[in-house]
Automatic annotation (TrEMBL):
Native species: Ursus maritimus (Polar bear)
Statement: the UniProt record of this protein carries the keyword Signal: no
Protein name (database record): Testicular spindle-associated protein SHCBP1L
UniProt key word Amino-acid biosynthesis: no
Function in brief: Testis-specific spindle-associated factor that plays a role in spermatogenesis. In association with HSPA2, participates in the maintenance of spindle integrity during meiosis in male germ cells.
SMART domains the UniProt entry points to: CASH, PbH1
Location of this chain's protein in the cell: Cytoplasm, Cytoskeleton, Spindle
Acidic residues bias (residue ranges): 84-107
Encoding gene, per UniProt annotation: SHCBP1L
Length: 657
């Protein structure tokens, strides 16, 4: 049944984002003759039957109201139906759609749609496309008009074509299994005519194409026809994806549609035309660079995820405010006015945070706000320290090795133990599986150590939280533990300030491995780091790290469409000011990027470093090892007896951001 937030939908599967912000006029034209589609049955998309309850048709006014609400929010972010729809569902139970009646035809599989060429574009090509070809130096308030003009010119190439209309399942169904219907796709014939309005809310006239095709085999054709009739066969153009073919004009139209989708999905901000901006195309270039930095891993995966979550939250809050205001019938009451202001200020705060993200001078140094806002407790008033035993049941054998004057406190919950700690305390953890939100709030100088095999003391992250282990303590130590990251987007360990020691630990990552922020210090010995989406160890400018006898492998598992541009691997250093790194007897292997990458934010330093590396070597010769050592010394990088091998792109590399 459709209830609650919808699971994320992949970019390839469906989009219901509509950029309509300035009116509802769009492109509409009468339908024409059908286009032959006999060759489309080959290489078709998978199709299957689903269990669902068709939504009763309500007439044009009701359908358009529901339609407008669906356009406000992408399917991947939908929070559920409005209260009115839920009341109607309670009053009128619809039978589930399981199999078609005998006289109903089963939908054929959908043909493949055009693959977007934008996926293979380099950032310079994207910048040239948007800034030079589409926007052409226009102001923010004219961006809508520029996008409309660009799209209209492309639509003139062909007035009739086949496409797949992908829309929100809530337009068709009241009850359905969410996982089984990420979108409803229908093969349609599209008819366009020259632009009638300056608005970017394009609409086109569509009709069901032959053969009747959908991603849902048992969707009734009369349901599709009925809904299209109520919509007067007019649907948002950005919900239609041209069918793949040999026609170059169709490929150009598909590219134009993707250009417009990407602009409104990622580059456009609702505040753009409300604020003065002297050079709007420069701002768009910064946002393209931000997107590319996220895609190629220049910005660590967990930080990128935080930005995406903030952007999604901003869009959701804006929709909430619009819906709340629309439900106020007359003059707002005092309570309603207060609620509007609360929602508005939430949006303003998120807007400010997103603007900070877009400032390249700030973004080059990573996160802009502290993760830990808790104050240090310091030592207890009576000056004593306590050893906290974390186990379901405490026995005498557990404490036999402790001195007789040791003050003990037993907990069956690691979170409670950490919450009870003052500086100087020790937390002793016995075998078991634990979770602790307070690991992300380490402010006091404590020791957290496991007793037994490190594989048996498993601490897993809480998936609903951004962070796992975060420290700003002067000196905190973790020993003999397994840290298993599940769902959190931040680095598995983040050292904000102070010094952290990891000794004999296993770190199984999902986000970035270990992040050491500017001014912080880290020592890792006899540990294993694996599975990070970015680098296993990420060193920010001015940080300090000592790595001894560690294994760092199978990192840089970035979920990006362009892995070829990512250099992250075992260890990544961001310089100016240079971090200090000492590596001894480490084994760095089987990482998708380089074993060690040194990221230079300026072209000049890269030129100097490359000149030093290549000094005295002919073109194509191997770089002089002594020159590399000299460069590493200048970067405060000391490496002794490390084994760096089998990394996808090489062992060590200096790269520019």
């Amino acid at each position: 049944m459709a209830s609650g937030a919808r699971a994320p939908v992949s970019e390839d599967s469906v989009r219901t984002v509509s950029p309509g912000r300035r009116g509802e006029k769009g492109l509409a034209a009468p339908t024409g003759a059908s286009v032959a589609v006999g060759a489309l049955k080959s290489a078709a998309s998978p199709v299957r039957s689903v269990v669902a309850s068709p939504r009763p048709m309500k007439g044009k006014a009701g359908r358009e109201a529901a339609r407008r609400r669906l356009q406000l929010l992408p399917a991947s972010q939908a929070e559920g139906r409005d209260e009115g729809a839920e009341d109607e569902d309670e009053e009128e139970e619809e039978p589930l759609l399981t199999v078609l009646e005998e006289e109903e035809e089963e939908a054929q599989p959908l043909p493949p749609v055009c693959v977007s060429p934008m996926r293979g574009m380099w950032r310079d090509e994207k910048v040239a496309l948007y800034c030079d070809e589409v926007l052409q130096g226009c102001k923010a308030e004219d961006a809508d008009e520029a996008m409309s003009k660009y799209l209209s010119e492309k639509l003139k190439l062909k007035d009739k074509w086949l496409g797949v209309w992908k829309t929100n399942p809530e337009l068709f169904f009241v009850k359905y299994e969410e996982a089984s219907i990420p979108f409803v796709g229908i093969l349609v014939e599209v008819t366009c005519k020259p632009r009638q309005s300056s608005s970017s809310c394009f609409k086109v006239t569509v009709s069901v194409a032959e053969p009747f095709s959908s991603n849902i085999a048992n969707i009734p054709r009369n349901l599709v026809n009925g809904i299209l009739e109520e919509l007067e066969h007019s649907v948002p153009l950005l919900e239609v994806y041209p069918v793949e073919g040999r026609d170059s004009d169709i490929r150009d139209i598909a590219l134009a549609l993707e250009v417009v989708r990407f602009f409104y999905d990622f580059l456009w901000r609702d505040w753009d035309d409300e604020e003065s901006c002297e050079n709007y195309t420069a701002l768009i270039e910064e946002r393209i660079n931000l997107w590319c930095d996220i895609q190629d891993g220049t910005i660590p995966g967990p930080i990128a995820q935080r930005f995406k979550k903030t952007l999604a939250k901003y869009k959701n809050k804006r929709v909430e405010l619009i819906e709340y205001q629309s439900n106020i019938k007359e003059d707002p009451s005092a309570a309603e006015a207060v609620e509007c202001w609360k929602k508005y200020y939430e949006i303003v705060m998120l807007c400010g945070l997103l603007k900070i993200w877009e400032d390249l001078r700030l973004r080059v140094h990573g996160p802009f706000f502290p993760r830990i806002l808790r104050r240090r407790k310091g030592k207890r008033d009576f000056g004593k320290t306590i050893t906290h035993i974390v186990a379901k049941v405490m026995t005498t054998d557990m404490v036999k090795d402790l001195s007789s004057d040791t003050l003990l406190q037993q907990h069956d919950d690691l979170d409670l133990a950490l919450d009870s700690c003052y500086s100087g305390d020790t937390v002793v953890i016995f075998p078991g599986e634990y979770q602790a939100v307070n690991l992300a709030l380490l402010t006091d100088d404590i020791i957290i150590k496991g007793v037994g095999k490190r594989e048996e003391i498993m601490i897993t992250s809480e998936p609903s939280h951004d962070s796992f282990v975060v420290s700003k303590a002067d000196n905190v130590k973790l020993m003999h533990l397994s840290l298993i990251q599940q769902g959190t987007v931040d680095g598995i360990v983040v050292v904000e300030s102070g010094h952290m020691t990891l000794e004999n630990c296993i770190l199984k990552c999902e986000g970035t491995g270990v992040c050491v922020l500017t001014g912080a210090a880290l020592t890792i010995t006899d540990s294993e780091i694996t599975g990070a989406q970015g680098a296993g160890v990420e060193l920010y400018p001015g940080s300090i790290a000592i790595l001894e006898r560690n294994e760092i492998h199978h990192c840089n598992n970035l979920r990006t469409s362009d892995n070829s541009k990512s250099t992250l691997g075992g260890v990544n250093m961001k310089v100016l000011p240079a971090p200090k790194l000492k590596m001894t007897n480490n084994h760095i292997y089987n990482n998708n990027g380089y074993g060690v990458s040194i990221l230079q934010p300026t072209e000049q330093f890269f030129i100097v470093a490359e000149a030093a590396l290549n000094k005295g070597a002919a073109s194509g010769d191997k770089k002089d090892d002594s020159m590399l050592s000299r460069v590493m010394q200048n970067l405060n990088l000391e490496m002794n007896n490390n084994k760096i091998e089998a990394n996808l792109k090489g062992d060590i590399r200096i790269v520019t951001s």
